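We close this part of the discussion by returning to an individual protein. The sequence in question and its C-alpha cells are set out directly beneath this paragraph:
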Amino acid sequence: MKLQEIMTRKLESIASNATVHEAIEKMVDKRIRSLLVRASHPSETDGVVTARDVVFKVLAKGLHPLKVRVGDIACRPLRCVSQDETVEKVAALMEQANVARVFVCDHGKIVGVVALMDIMQATLIDRARNAHV
C-alpha cells in the first residue's frame, strides 16, 4: 500500500512566532495531536509541534504557554518522504528515527502527513480487503 492512499491531506499549521497557548487552543479545538510549524523567518525551516512537545517542554517545566513561542519547541528538521513510498518502508523509517509522524512531500512541497494511527488503520483496512479475496 502506498502513502498516497492513507496520508492526511488536510494539514493544520501554525506560525513559528505564535504562542504555545495558541497551539494548544488549535490542537484542542481541532482534536489533533500535532501542527505543522511554518517558518516565520528565511533563516528558519518548517517544523512540527506535538502534544508531547507542549506537555514535556512547556507544561511539565512550569513555563507559561503565553510566553513560549511555538518555534522554540518545534522539532526540526521534518522527516519527508515521497507519496509513492510504501507503508511498510515508512513504518520502518519511523521506528528507526523514533518519530510518530512523517510528512509527505512532492517536489519540495508538503502535501500530507502520515502518523502511526494512519499506519494502524491502513493495516486493518488491508487485512479486511485481503480477507475477502
